[in-house]
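Project outcomes to date are best conveyed with an example. Our students and postdoctoral researchers have been running inverse folding experiments weekly, and each run begins with a structure described purely in tokens. The record below, which covers 368 residues, was selected by the lab manager from last quarter's runs and is presented without edits.
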């Protein structure tokens, strides 16, 4: 008997989850940072039936010696993909350890407008001291300090998204009125290290609030829509998901799949000659597609979705597209996103009311 349907996400930064994944990529190394590459991977994910893609980011290069590579900013890549996809949710990783939350909230609201309501935000952090130097900021040292920055950053971003009411934009040429100033609001936020007056410089996102993903240990559950949970086995994932207290939970799953050319174990061993695939505390599947389907079937009903981290994107995505997602959909263990729907709709999340909007009086009720 099948459980509730899963929503499927995939991380598409770089060439894959393994630090040496570029050695097995189907393209030449100089193609990695081209627009065509990121568009091709996103198209493959959309055509396969994924609900959303995520894009890792940070102030420092994504890998160390001997496989140093670069990356283009996640928000910039997300904006580019928004115009080149139609149903796929797009969630860049954006740290707020050092970034100004006013700017972050504006970028993400703009992304939601560009994508017509398909934007998400994976809240990241910057633990390396080099990130502080890159930003030219004092070091935010320790998990507790970074968690405080993340909580303040998400809190003020959510307030800024509400600082424009939905009907604040008038655009009346006849009366030369373009905004209703009474429907713009100061957020007057005071955090541990900064204050923000507001209002935002971008109208309220189409979704009302961009979908916020993050780790419950790093961001208060009340500020998250979706908690990303780890665990090295399904029981650990289930226990972590039960503790989150968030509307939705996604399990983090690293995958290496058998391909027509080589088994997953052979492919992992080939890459391990160059760099180790260090354990991250996430659930990890190395083996045939049928085994991954069985694992995800076990997670259905335990979590609301999974975020897959493929060993090598160019090798895992075709197998996921041909053998994994069709099997999950046929067994009603996963659903494909629908046209003209927002990411909130795909995740079964309501569009939130604006915190600043005045209550509309019911029939017969007087206003004072």
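After processing, the design step wrote out the following sequence:
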């Amino acid at each position: 008997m099948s459980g509730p349907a899963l929503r499927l996400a995939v991380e598409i930064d770089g060439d894959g989850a393994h630090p040496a994944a570029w050695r097995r990529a189907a393209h030449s190394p100089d193609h990695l940072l081209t627009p065509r590459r990121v568009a091709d991977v996103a198209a493959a994910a959309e055509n396969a039936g994924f609900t959303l893609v995520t894009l890792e980011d940070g102030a420092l290069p994504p890998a160390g010696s001997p496989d140093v590579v670069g990356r283009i900013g996640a928000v910039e890549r997300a904006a580019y993909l928004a115009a080149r996809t139609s149903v796929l949710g797009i969630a860049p990783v954006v740290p707020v350890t050092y970034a100004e939350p006013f700017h972050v909230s504006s970028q993400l609201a703009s992304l939601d407008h560009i994508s017509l309501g398909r934007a998400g935000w994976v809240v990241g952090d910057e633990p390396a001291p080099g990130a502080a130097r890159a930003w030219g900021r004092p070091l935010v040292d320790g998990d507790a300090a970074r968690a405080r920055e993340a909580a303040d950053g998400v809190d003020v971003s959510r307030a800024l998204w509400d600082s424009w009411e939905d009907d604040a934009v008038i655009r009346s040429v006849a009366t030369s009125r373009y905004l209703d100033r009474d429907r713009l609001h100061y957020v007057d936020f005071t955090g541990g290290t900064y204050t923000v007056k507001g209002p935002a410089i971008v109208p309220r996102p189409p979704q009302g609030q961009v979908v916020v993903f993050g780790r419950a240990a790093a961001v208060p559950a009340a500020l998250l829509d979706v908690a990303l949970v780890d665990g090295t086995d399904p029981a650990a994932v289930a226990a972590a998901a039960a503790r989150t207290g968030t509307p939705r939970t996604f399990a983090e799953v690293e995958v290496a799949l058998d391909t027509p050319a080589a088994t997953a174990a052979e492919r992992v061993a080939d890459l391990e000659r160059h760099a180790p695939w260090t354990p991250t505390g996430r659930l990890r599947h190395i083996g045939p597609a049928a085994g991954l389907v069985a694992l995800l079937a076990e997670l259905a009903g335990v979590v609301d979705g999974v975020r897959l981290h493929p060993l090598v994107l160019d090798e895992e995505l075709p197998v996921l597209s041909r053998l994994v997602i069709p099997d999950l959909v046929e067994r009603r263990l996963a659903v494909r996103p629908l046209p003209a729907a927002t990411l909130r709709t795909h995740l079964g999340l309501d569009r939130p009311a604006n915190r600043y909007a005045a209550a509309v009086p019911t029939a017969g009720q007087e206003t004072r």
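Residues 360-368 have pLDDT under 50 and may be disordered. The longest helix spans residues 143-161. The training component of this project remains on track.
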